[in-house]
């Protein structure tokens, strides 16, 4: 859209309205990520699995060590490692599914409909988690798998839309505000769920029912607030898409194959993806395992864990905005490198954390919050600068393969180390390796060269 002589250019206002609508999907899906993915469902599913494996029947059994295994396809699976293996498998499957979703989205003029469709399917799977009770861990595994795949698929398209609604100089700011709003929304709902779980007796609810109702509220939140970006974002015709024979599915596979062969022409983009694979696996494993670590290793009850994650959410709101401001003057890559150094300090401190020391646990939560939103928001905006036009969703599908809730190598290592040692302490400190490798690879990325290779316009501060 161009301005007509004699009339004001309203394009920036229209773009700003779309950006505000776009922010709301971070607000919507963060309810699932925080209440279900980060806080409640992992310990809840582990308890269900322990009940099935060891015959626990009362809440007092929660503090006992379960050494029996579940038996799946002839393999012995530790109940405490079950969630991490499920996330691992979901990500391996997503590595096959998400690139096809991205290639199809790049060829579609209905990106917002694809995004919303996956969001509503994922929220339905999350809502059905209400029915995971007793020893029915198999249903919980299935629903967690489906919800994670749908979340990743919706985020592929959501992140690609960032390239359509924000200019290069706007993306750090827009991405940071989206992440910040997401942490604020997830935190507000988590505050309500904190009250429900903490006051369950006075509400006439058992602990299990309070947790299940909280998960149901997160599913409803995800579904309802997705309506705002669905109505506020405009669909656009695809750009610079190469012609492939056949229908949409065949065309999508053809474009995906062509892109994979062509990636060697974008070495900086590929190097960043490898860096992100490692350091984001570390971040995601900390997020997924935080409540389990606090529950099973440090001995905190559910109300303390929810309060701690709630603190992380609100600190992360300010952390994301702070990192966005720093990137405006120092460049996003440099700020991300500083954030990774802070992450390494966080996991080392977690290893030495004494049991049931609430003050130190809350201090650690503040440290996590400061770097959590900022590193993720700037990673998204930085990667958007390195993507060739017309392939945004496809490249973001590769990005999402190691994005929140779908990391695989970190959760695999975490689960295996726990199974071998029967302790979460060595599992958490092992994540230092992921941050160190990611930091070393990111240091090799030349931002200006990568932007030029992708054929994009560089922002004023790189």
TrEMBL record:
GO molecular function, one term: transmembrane transporter activity
Transmembrane feature ranges: 82-102, 114-133, 139-167, 179-197, 209-228, 270-290, 302-323, 335-353, 359-378, 398-417, 423-443
Keywords: Membrane, Transmembrane, Transmembrane helix, Transport
Membrane topology: Multi-pass membrane protein
Pfam family, one: ATG22
Subcellular location: Cell membrane
Keyword Protein transport in annotation: no
Every Major facilitator superfamily (MFS) profile domain range: 268-462
GO cellular component, one term: plasma membrane
InterPro entries from the UniProt entry: Atg22-like (IPR024671), ATG22/LtaA_families (IPR050495), MFS_dom (IPR020846), MFS_trans_sf (IPR036259)
Signal peptide boundaries: none
Protein name stated in the entry: UMF1 family MFS transporter
Organism: Nocardioides ginsengisegetis
């Amino acid at each position: 859209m161009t301005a007509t002589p004699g009339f004001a250019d309203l394009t920036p206002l229209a773009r700003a309205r779309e950006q505000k609508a776009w922010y709301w999907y971070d607000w919507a899906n963060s309810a699932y990520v925080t209440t279900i993915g980060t806080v409640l469902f992992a310990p809840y599913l582990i308890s269900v699995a322990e009940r099935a494996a060891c015959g626990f029947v009362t809440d007092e059994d929660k503090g006992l060590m379960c050494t029996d295994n579940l038996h799946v396809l002839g393999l012995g699976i530790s109940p405490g490692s079950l969630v991490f293996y499920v996330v691992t498998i979901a990500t391996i499957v997503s590595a096959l599914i998400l690139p096809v979703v991205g290639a199809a989205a790049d060829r579609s003029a209905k990106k917002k409909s694809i995004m919303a469709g996956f969001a509503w399917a994922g929220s339905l799977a999350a809502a059905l988690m209400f029915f995971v009770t007793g020893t029915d861990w198999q249903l919980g595994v299935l629903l967690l798998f489906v919800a994670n795949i749908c979340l990743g698929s919706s985020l592929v398209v959501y992140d690609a839309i960032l390239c359509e609604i924000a200019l290069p100089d706007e993306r750090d700011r827009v991405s940071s505000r989206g992440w910040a709003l997401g942490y604020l929304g997830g935190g507000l709902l988590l505050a309500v769920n904190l009250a429900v779980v903490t006051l369950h007796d006075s509400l006439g609810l058992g602990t299990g029912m309070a947790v299940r109702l909280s998960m149901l509220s997160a599913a409803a939140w995800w579904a309802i607030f997705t309506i705002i970006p669905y109505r506020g974002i405009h669909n656009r015709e695809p750009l610079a898409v190469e012609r492939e024979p056949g229908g949409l599915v065949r065309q999508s596979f053809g474009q995906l194959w062509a892109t994979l062969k062509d990636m060697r022409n974008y070495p900086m983009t590929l190097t960043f993806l490898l860096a992100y694979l490692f350091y984001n696996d570390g971040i995601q494993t900390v997020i997924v395992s935080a409540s389990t670590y606090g529950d099973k290793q440090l001995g905190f009850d559910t109300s303390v864990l929810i309060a701690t994650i709630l603190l992380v959410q609100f600190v992360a709101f300010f952390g994301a905005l702070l990192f966005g401001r720093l990137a405006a003057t120092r460049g996003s890559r440099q700020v991300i490198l500083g954030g990774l150094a802070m992450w390494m300090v966080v996991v080392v401190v977690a290893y030495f954390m004494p049991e049931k020391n609430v003050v130190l646990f809350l201090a650690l939560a503040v440290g996590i919050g400061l770097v959590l939103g900022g590193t993720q928001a700037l990673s998204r905006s930085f990667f958007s600068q390195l993507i060739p036009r017309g392939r945004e969703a496809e490249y973001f599908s590769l990005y999402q393969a190691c994005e929140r809730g779908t990391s695989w190598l970190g959760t695999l290592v975490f689960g295996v180390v726990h199974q071998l040692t029967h302790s979460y302490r060595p599992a958490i400190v092992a994540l230092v390796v992921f941050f160190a490798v990611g930091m070393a690879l990111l240091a090799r990325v030349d931002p200006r060269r990568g932007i030029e290779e992708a054929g994009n316009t560089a922002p004023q501060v790189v």
